[in-house]
Amino acid sequence: MQHVRAKKSLGQHFLRDMSVAGRTADTVTGGSVLEIGPGTGVLTQFLLNNPDISLTAVELDHESVVYLQNTLLVSHSFRLIEGDVLKMDWGEMFDGDFSVIGNYPYNISSQIFFKVLEYKDRISVCSGMLQKEVAERLASVPGKKAYGILSVLLQVWYDIEYLFTVDAQMFNPPPKVQSAVIRLTRNKRRSLGCDESLFKTVVKTSFNQRRKQMRNSLQQLAGKGNPVLEEDIFSKRPEQLSVEEFVELTKLLQPCQN
């Protein structure tokens, strides 16, 4: 650990609890795995102990890359790539389906999950550690304050489990917030039955004005005075709608698009 300095600009907080690392690693069982931000390799070493996993690790911090090259790469065989994972084509790294795992930097965790959505037809499992508040948001159900854009966009394609909470003292340096480990498992849905781009627009537009009824926030998409806005579903606010209701809402609005 002393060979790598945690950098605030990269949102680095290195996990130092081995039991938590082991439990996190167990959230993926095998196949091709992309680890984001291995840092000092605390999680990486547990992944490498699973013979069913073919590991690719992507790390932005050069100091961490050198450390991993001089430690884990000496005794283990895995692919280590230095670079910004958000700017990479994940699909080109693997021949088929793959899983994603990591102790995700707090400052890019939401961006990582938006990236997961781009590869939803190839990412079978996405798990790892992130800020507790964000984890609660991803797993939230309708009616909760945490329920929002990412909740709906991810839950329509993935079953999401909030697995356990991780105390700040289990990291070096300790973050100012608690963390949590979650797991996303791809569901059987292969199509929404509506325009996916419109679905995203409906969800984002709704939650950007979450205090308004749907008929007010979505009026521009439907067209002013459109009778479809009189449907009961448009009298609700976004946090009241289930994922399936957002799909239904998109189907109602789709004929209104030019």
In summary, what is this structure?
The protein is an alpha/beta fold. It is built from 11 helices and 9 strands.
- The coarse overall form would be elongated
Helix/strand order, N-terminal first: EHEHEHHEEHEHHEEEHHHH
| The CATH topology of the largest domain | Rossmann fold
DSSP helical segment count = 11
CATH architecture of the largest domain: 3-Layer(aba) Sandwich
Regions with little confidence, pLDDT below 50 for 5+ residues: none
Overall pLDDT confidence: 92
Structural class: alpha/beta
CATH superfamily of the largest domain: Vaccinia Virus protein VP39
The total number of structural domains is 2
Distance between the termini: 57 Å
| Main pleated sheet | 7 strands, mixed
The whole-angstrom Rg is 20 Å
The CATH class of the largest domain, by name, is: Alpha Beta
Q: What percent of residues are in strands?
A: 15-25%
What is the helix fraction of residues, given as a range? 25-40%
Strand order of the largest sheet: 4-3-2-5-6-9-7
Number of strands: 9
Could you walk me through the main structural features you see in this protein, from its secondary elements to its overall organization?
The longest helix has 13 residues, at 196-208. This protein folds into 2 domains: 8-186, Vaccinia Virus protein VP39 (Rossmann fold, 3-Layer(aba) Sandwich); 196-256, Orthogonal Bundle (Helicase, Ruva Protein, domain 3). The N and C termini lie far apart (57 Å). The chain is an alpha/beta fold and 258 residues long. It has helices at residues 18-25, 42-48, 62-70, 72-75, 109-118, 132-139, 149-155, 196-208, 214-217, 219-222, 243-253; strands at 14-15, 31-36, 53-59, 79-82, 98-102, 123-131, 158-166, 171-172, 179-186.
